[in-house]
Amino acid sequence: MNLLKYQILVLMDKYHKVTEVAQALNMKQPTVSFHMKSMEKEMQTPLFHAARGRILLTEAARKLLPYARQILSLETAAMQALADHAGRAGKRIRIAADVVPGSYIVPGWVTEYTKINPGTYILLEIHPADTINRLLQEGEIDFAFVHDPLLSDSITCHPVFRDEMGLITSASHSLRLDGLSLKETLLHEAFVISSSPSFLHSYAKTWFERSSISMASVNVVLESGSLEAVKHAVSAGSMISFFPACGIRGQEEGLVWHALPGTRPAFYEIYMMHGNHPLSESKEAFKSFILGQTGQTMGN
């Protein structure tokens, strides 16, 4: 099949409407319908079926779908490699990151990289992990930075950053985590929790469970999807929150970071992911740069 047919298959899985697929491809509806029938004839099996006004993929089409995405991703990488070679738009890199690395880790790396690679244009988007995984599989981004890597034969994963999780309080708040009853201490505190779904929300829930504290018994007074809103709420009152050490710059924010109680530091890791296919020259250079930072950030 030609690339256009693979594009129609991928877009139909996204939009479920011939009209919207035609619009996305700047084509007429009858042309899209013609190619859909041609695909089924070529593959000798039904690939599409209508249900309640939507076009859905058959089981056979769903088996073909990941290969179609990979073929389109390879085509994009090939064209990007040619653009690199020709000196046109070859330094455009698309990145998606979870909220912690996207807010506190990746921007610093990007700044340093662009200093030594002038002319590079980098697009950084912040998304939940599920969205990042989908964008990477569909070839919509070049690199992803997440806490929980996607396990797939089509994805390459590298650990690139290690940090410690802790609790933050205002500078005037007297939090004692070395008392005899940690559970009693925390049940008397007011918490700000990052909204679900997020790494910080999952981390807090898991930590409470491991400490034999029911999440339902915790006095959560505020949930927010903004890390800066979480910090502002904590610094303005007597609340506390789980927060990564990399997100706290010191006393100038009116915050104090406390290590979580336990015999060992509460480390967590950030992973870089990219498609398991040849990278263009500029993207290979970016990957090498990030991996070069790993020795400085994974030594804890």
Automatic annotation (TrEMBL):
Residues 1-58 form the HTH lysR-type domain. Keywords: DNA-binding, Transcription, Transcription regulation. The keyword Zinc does not apply. It comes from the Bacteria. Transmembrane segments: none annotated. InterPro entries: LysR_HTH_N, LysR_subst-bd, WH-like_DNA-bd_sf, WH_DNA-bd_sf. CDD domains: PBP2_LTTR_substrate. Belongs to the LysR transcriptional regulatory family. This is LysR substrate-binding domain-containing protein. It comes from Paenibacillus medicaginis.
